[in-house]
């Protein structure tokens, strides 16, 4: 019988890690949604070809080595002796099958659009060919979690294709899982908990991880999540809300780890819903009216960095001279020039259980409404739980949508590809561009950067694109979130954390009580 939360472990009980995240993975289908929650699940139940280490270098996983055959072809040599949870053997066929599936996923297809050919050279060798020289192929490989092609092929008992990807729906893959990762899913209650057990045939025998049983429980409410850790009901929580950082830093028996974040939080202005947003002067007026520094320092107590662009410091397109441009007089002048001196009304929608500072989401929205009121704009805002918000977001249900995004590839181009590219349902470009903004010139700059193998030249192109977006203001950058995790001090979390915010819990060590 599963242990209840907070139950003491007997000496002969399995080593258990009780994890509380702020949300539940929306599905067991890792290609259904591109989000942190789904990537965290991927690293529990699957393995990528390569993964980022703490220094953001590439670490071999299911690919043991790789070589660049020519300007457009990279060869991956795969690990032998790997078994899926189903008992099926891992081979190159599974990599090819997985990549083809990624290319038809609404959320992932844009990332994998550069790949033109996928070929299994033999049972443990795969060639990936791009249409043109592409500098980020290894970055993409960190998001290739080979799936069990035999397990996911054929038809289900309901007569449905097991390989179908159904957004926010019911499919075989959303309810069944067979990966190569350290943990198998043994029980799932959507929205309540997922129970995992250590996969006895896991290939990585060198992993220091000693967790035999893992229980993941979503606790959306920040204070409740923190209280669960302090009371001993859970062993590890993520994220730590900013207003609990100091408390946990000094709490007895608790280990706190913080890192600067790279996720940009922004306010998207929908040009299709609001005619005024098609006027660049109005968009700029909104940008000048919003005070990012006040939001980050006062509302978020400094646990965020005010932003004036998408890319954080250290990313290729980051432009150091771009700083928050709050100027109320300029904002009012632009509104008058555009013929909107008397203002207008807009709606704003934001999630209330997704981001690190969710306890303050309503306050941030309220602060933005107060700032825009100073240019005679009336804001009606609504906050929703994440699972409801995503459906509304996909429907572009409000004039302004709050969005948080971190680069899936660890590169600036990803911000543009998803958040600013002209929306294209066929390719997946602009999948999360709720501004409905389209500027082919900026898209072309990023496309050129993605063909440029020289880092300095590539950065120059991306910085030019960042400057043009800043000048066009299709959205308002707000802040980059800081990251924080906390655990009972017997859980050694530091070695498994990274700025990508995907803890490698298969390697975590839990010490005796």
Which helices and strands appear, and what pairs or packs with what?
Elements: E1 16-21, H1 36-45, E2 50-52, E3 58-60, E4 63-70, E5 73-78, H2 92-102, E6 115-122, E7 125-130, H3 137-141, H4 172-175, E8 183-189, E9 193-198, E10 213-218, H5 222-230, E11 236-238, H6 245-249, E12 254-269, H7 280-289, H8 292-299, E13 304-306, H9 328-337, E14 345-351, H10 361-373, E15 378-384, H11 386-394, E16 400-405, H12 413-419, H13 440-449, H14 455-472, E17 475-488, E18 491-492, E19 509-510
Parallel strand pairs: 1-10, 1-11, 14-15, 14-16
Antiparallel strand pairs: 2-3, 4-5, 5-7, 6-7, 8-9, 9-10, 11-17, 12-16, 12-17, 13-17, 18-19
Helix pairs in contact: 7-9, 13-14
Give structural notes.
Helix 7 packs antiparallel against helix 9 and helix 13 packs antiparallel against helix 14. The N terminus is likely disordered. This protein starts with 15 loop residues before the first strand and ends with a strand. The protein has 513 residues and is of the alpha+beta class. It has 14 helices and 19 strands. Strands 1, 8, 9, 10, 11, 12, 13, 14, 15, 16 and 17 form an eleven-stranded mixed beta sheet that branches. It has a four-stranded antiparallel beta sheet with strand order 4-5-7-6, with helices on one face. Helices cover 25% and strands 23% of the residues. This is Nickel/dipeptide/oligopeptide ABC transporter substrate-binding protein. It holds the Pfam family SBP_bac_5. InterPro entries: Peptide/Ni-bd (IPR030678), SBP_5 (IPR039424), SBP_5_dom (IPR000914). Belongs to the bacterial solute-binding protein 5 family.
